[in-house]
Structures are given as C-alpha cells and as structure tokens.
Design a protein that fits this description.
- This protein is an alpha/beta fold.
- It has 15 helices and 13 strands.
- It has an 8-stranded mixed sheet, sandwiched between helices. Strands 3, 4, 5, 6 and 7 form a 5-stranded antiparallel sheet that branches.
- Helix 3 packs parallel to helix 10, helix 3 packs parallel to helix 15 and helix 5 crosses helix 10.
- Bound molecules: zinc ion.
- The site of zinc ion has 6 residues, from loops.
C-alpha cells in the first residue's frame, strides 16, 4: 500500500557550492554520512528550488513553501512567525513586529543594537513597556531570547507595510518608521510605532534595571529598535489541506512559528536549542515518538546553516556528520516515509543564503527506488525525482501517503 506516516527532516542551509579546500566537494559530499547515504540508496532523489530557481530564500518563506504554502501569499514578514514561535496569542489583523532592546547615548545614537546582549531583567523591562499608552490601539509586548522581543499592535485601520527603525549599524541614530505604501492604514501604523519608540526611551531610561546595569558598567537596555513588520491572518491548516496531523521538533522560534502557522503541534524538547550545542539525538528521538500520534513530523536542524554563515566548511561537515549519527536506526522505521532536504543552500564561501537548489531524498514504502548511490548535491541532481519546487513537496508526500484525492474523473 505504502507508508501511512511521514517524517520530514530539514537540515537548514545544508546545500553548498564546491569548495577548493575539500577538493571541489561540498561539505555534504565530503562528510561521512552512512545513514543519509542509505536513505538515498533505498529511495528516490532529486533537487529542489525552495521558492524558484535562482531565488535566495529566507528561512521563513522557504519553510512555508516546503509546507505547501505559497510564500508570496502567506509571508508578510518575520514578526508574526517569531510571535507564534514564542507562544504569543495573536489575533486576525494584528500587526506584529520583532524588537531588540538596544543601548542609546544621550544624543539618541545607537551604541549597541543588542544592549550588550542583555540576558537578565528583560522580563521586567518588557513589563514596564506595558505602561506605554497609545489611544485607540492595544499593545502587547512579549520577551524573546536575550535582547529580542515581540510587539503586536491590535486595533482597526492598521496597515503592515511600514519600515524598520533598526539602522542595522551601531553609531547611527534609529530610523523613523515610515509607511511603505500610500495607504492611510500604514501611515497610521508608522505614526504609532514612532510614538511607541519615544515612550519606550522615556520608560526604559529611568528603569531600575538600567540604573543597576549602568552602576555595574554594563550597557543599558534603554531603548528599542523595531523591525520585521508583518500581518496576521490565519490560513487553512495542513490537516485541512493535505490530511496531515503534524508535529514539530525544532529549536529556533522562527521554525516553531511557521509550524504553528500551518497548524502543527509544536513540541517542547529539552535540549533543542537551534544552536551547535543542541541535543541532536534527543530531537530525533522526540520526532520518532511523535509519530505515535501524528502522521507527519517535521524535524529541524539549524546547525548546518550556522556553519555556512560562519563560512566554516569543516564545521559544516562536522555538524552534518553529527546529524547523520543522531538519526542512526532510522531505517528501522519501516512503514514511515522519510524525507531529507534543506530550506536553502548556505554556501560557506558566501556566508549567506544562495539560490542554488537543495538536495532532497524520499525513502520508504511505495517509493520508486532510482539507484542513487549517496545523498549530496551532485548525486541528487541525477536522481529520479528530477527538479521540483518547494511547493511541490507536500502534494508529493500526501500522494505517497495515499491521502491525496483524484483530480477530475
Ligand atoms: Zn534556513
């Protein structure tokens, strides 16, 4: 019949370009990865353009596409996915931003965009921001990791097409928030954001936590920088669209947020941090367990992307080997369709995302085995799946799980 459940493993930023120091191979090609290679030998491989050929995807839109959601329709900005990822309650029509606590000097210049990477006291500072009052709208602040937080503006006649106040560089003044279209709604939102920024400066400057930080010679978190404007509207879930009851195992809030947006249950896994230090094996074990009561499990590993952005091919190779080791025993999941892929390439030479397609392999009951020998960018490009787009993956997966219905008579 085929598999009845699927596990999708996304290795963030996995794809790369040939590297001289690795003899013209990519970190994935050069890595020792017996488990990934076995999946390729027992599966069908191909390459995938997460958004479209040559497009350099952000992780948010790339994951939306892989889950079957056209990012041009569903991706407004990163704020909303970060909000969902930290478990914030949002409502239709909310305008959602990310913000940073930052350190400002007396002249209003940003001395440090991350307020010395403040760790302690942000909960109290966020609570103090709750005193900001803007007539006609409700404001919701929530703390994130370290210097980061989320702001939602709730009310009517609000637009989301507004600019960031983050100057992206220390030593500059924060930018005024400006409308990016000609609507009255966006103009109103920009005006509200600027008022919030001004009131935040007043409240935070005299907050006891900042007094204490200054007394210790630490940078104060005496202002906020706002970015990533987005708009929330609930879409149809994976269950409705593909019959998939999903669970998510990820460390990073963005990935949890996208998973939540498409209707997955986000599992909290101890030791899943979205960093090099994450518990790779613990995450895999949690994903296997989640297959008991879900027919679709998304398992996300961030580390390859971090190594790519650090421009460190040997580190990238090492984390790929660690992920491969962490999924040891995956071949014993006999009635499960396993998919391994990436959300984009992060070539070490670029230290950022590229538009290169990513390798993908599907292995499990019902899959037409294509004779591919290993899992890497070169082998995958000769595989039987050919070249697909991110949006093609969920229909292919649902079809292999026999959840798809017939098109026409
Ligand atoms: Zn990514």
């Amino acid at each position: 019949m085929g598999a009845s459940k699927a596990m999708l493993i996304v290795c963030d930023g996995l794809g790369d370009r040939p590297i001289d120091a690795l003899g013209g191979r990519t970190p994935l090609k050069a890595a020792y990865k017996p488990n990934f290679d076995r999946l390729a030998r027992r599966g069908i491989s191909g390459i995938m353009d997460p958004i479209a050929p040559g497009i350099r995807p952000g992780s948010g839109p790339a994951h939306l596409a892989i889950f079957g959601y056209d990012p041009f329709q569903y991706y407004t900005g990163r704020g909303i996915f970060e909000a969902l990822g930290v478990g914030m309650e949002v409502q239709k029509g909310d305008i959602v931003f990310r913000f940073n606590f930052a350190s400002f000097d007396k002249e209003g210049r940003v001395i440090d965009r991350r307020a010395g990477r403040i760790r302690e006291g942000t909960r109290e500072l966020v609570k103090a921001l709750g005193d900001i009052r803007i007539p006609g709208v409700e404001l919701i602040f929530k703390e994130g990791i370290e210097h980061r937080g989320i702001l939602a503006i709730r009310g009517s006649h609000l637009g989301w097409k507004v600019s960031d106040t983050d100057p992206q560089k220390d030593g500059l003044k924060a930018l005024p928030c400006r409308p990016l279209d000609r609507t009255e709604e966006s103009r109103r939102t920009a005006e509200i954001v600027n008022k919030i920024v001004d009131q935040a400066l007043e409240i935070l400057e005299r907050h006891p936590i900042n007094e204490a930080r200054k007394a210790k010679g630490e940078l104060p978190a005496n202002g906020i920088l706002i970015r990533g404007s987005s708009y929330y509207e609930e879409g149809p879930g994976l269950k409705e669209r593909f019959g998939l009851v999903g669970a998510c195992v990820a460390g990073g809030t963005l990935y949890k947020g996208v998973a939540k947006f498409v209707g997955m249950e986000v599992l909290e896994v101890k030791g899943a941090t979205g960093t090099y230090g994450t518990d790779f094996r613990g995450k895999f074990e949690a994903a296997v367990k989640a297959l008991e009561d879900h027919n679709f499990v998304f398992l996300h590993f961030k580390a390859p992307d971090l190594a790519g952005e650090d421009g460190d091919p040997l580190k990238k190779l090492e984390v790929i080997e660690r992920i491969d080791k962490a999924i040891s025993g995956i071949e014993e999941l006999r009635d499960i369709l396993i998919v391994v892929t990436a959300d984009h390439s992060t070539p070490c030479a670029l230290k950022t995302h590229s538009g290169d397609p990513v390798p993908i392999v599907l292995s499990g009951p019902g899959v037409r085995i294509d004779g591919t020998e290993g899992f890497d960018e070169f082998s995958a490009s000769k595989g039987g799946l050919g070249r697909i787009r991110g949006l093609d993956l969920m229909p292919i997966l649902a079809d292999l799980l026999n959840l798809a219905s017939k098109f026409g008579a």
